[in-house]
Amino acid sequence: ALSNLSYSKKYYILFFISLGISVLFYLAYLYDKNTNTIYSPYRYFSYIGSSAIFALYSLIKTVGKTRKNQFKKYNHYSNKKVERISRAHYKEYLYLLFEYKGEYLLKQTKQTYSGMNIRLKKGKFHDEEIKRLVERYNGRISDVTMYGEYVDSKNKEVYYCYLITLDEEINLKKYEWHQFSRIRFLEFADFDKEIVYRLLLKDNFEINK
Fold it and tell me: Which of 20, 24, 193, 203 is most deeply packed, by most CB within 10 A?
């Protein structure tokens, strides 16, 4: 019943239960003492002590967990703020992998393959640029999903990586359609391989180099 509650709520509940048990044992001790029915006083105090210790432990865990979560929230916000500022002067790119009926469109060079890499102008929306690109090649989009980012800190570049499912096949110069099972036999540069494979697996990612 407690499995769906947060850690802080669980420990609060355990604290009050343990505290309640300690109070009940203490009241039982007072009652039995007044009626002269105490068999072993030390047993009462052992029960009271163990329940009180567990109550104290629950309270400490609650306070500790709350402070830790607050730090995480602050730390997460601070990191995001720094990251947003530090990327202000980064060059932005869309890294696109097109899919149509189980095949994927890859650009072929002399030795390697890659997805489609497009420079993104500042202030441009991703979806609008992708739609404009596909329409230019007379294609139709079925689905667009962004699975991750690749940040190259050394060269101050960030790549937003998308898997785009098409309703119609498009044919581009220097690009080829390849089946999923064949792609693992193709040669990729490390940069492209890291992105393409994650997009093929539909794996959310954030890579910082």
Answer: 193
- The token pair at 138 is 């007379």
98 in the same domain as 77: no
Cα separations in angstroms, 60 against 15, 18, 63, 177: 10, 13, 5, 60
Query: How far apart are alpha carbons 162 and 194 in whole angstroms?
Result: 13
> At 180, is the secondary structure helix, strand, or coil?
helix
User: Are residues 120 and 72 both part of a single domain?
Assistant: no
Task: Single out the residue in 28, 59, 86 at which a domain terminates.
Answer: 86
Q: Which domain does 34 fall in, by range? A: 7-86
Of 16, 11, 20, nearest to 64 (Cα)? 11
**How many independent structural domains does the chain possess?**
2
pLDDT at 89: 82
Six-digit token pair at 183? 């792609």
Same domain, 96 and 183: yes
Structure confidence at residue 61 (pLDDT): 62
> For the purposes of burial, counting CB atoms within 10 Å of the CB of 195, is it exposed (0-12), middle (13-18) or buried (19 or more)?
buried
| Contact call for residues 107 and 180 (beta carbons, < 8 A) | no
Is this model's pTM higher than 0.70 or not? no
Q: pLDDT averaged over consecutive 10-residue blocks of the chain (209 residues)?
A: 46 68 75 70 68 69 52 40 56 96 94 94 86 91 94 93 94 94 94 95 91
* 203 shares a domain with 130: yes
